[in-house]
Amino acid sequence: MRHDNDTALDIYLTGLRNAHALENEALSIMQPQISRLEHYPELLARLKEHVRETEAQIKRLETILKDFDEGSSTIKDVGGRIMGGLAALGHSMAGDEVLKNTLANYAFENYEIAAYKSLIALADATKQSAHVKLLEQSLGEEIAMASFIENHIEDTTLKFLRLSEAGRTAKV
């Protein structure tokens, strides 16, 4: 199923592998947060839902890669998991962990949105129209998550402030 323009297809396949690694990194960032969000039940519920969405996004990317008899990049996947784990660990030591995570998650979601928009453009350019629907589904999930975070930044910040002022553990 190679496209006439091997350069375009190579760029698309690299983008797919990068997105796969990015989604694995996202899991390694979100999963540690879930175990630490006892004071933020709405955020906790949404993060759990997004972990399930992210797992489905990884499967969609694997399905697309299989169309080309390609796999993901183990090096990129492992590297992404390590980087995500280090980021989560670094935030967990901060007194304002939930705020740092909220801001980082918002930035990360927007990065993923850009990645999926790029992949959709590449799928169109390489005439891989069957992939567009799968990529658009993932894009929609990322947009919804970014919107959720954006709509809750103020509430999360103020709840953190109230907990801190009350002398309660406000990290998570």
UniProtKB/TrEMBL annotation:
Q: Which stretches are annotated as coiled coil? A: 44-71
Q: Which InterPro entries match?
A: DUF892_YciF-like (IPR010287), Ferritin-like (IPR012347), Ferritin-like_SF (IPR009078), YciF (IPR047114)
Asked if the Swiss-Prot or TrEMBL record annotates the protein with the keyword Coiled coil, the reply is yes
One Pfam match, by short name? Answer: DUF892
Does the record carry Coiled coil as a key word?
yes
Keywords, A to Z?
Answer: Coiled coil
What Gene3D superfamilies does UniProt report for this protein, alphabetically? 1.20.1260.10
Task: List, alphabetically, the PANTHER family matched.
Answer: PROTEIN YCIF
Protein name per Swiss-Prot or TrEMBL: Ferritin-like domain-containing protein
According to its UniProt entry, this protein's organism is Flaviflagellibacter deserti
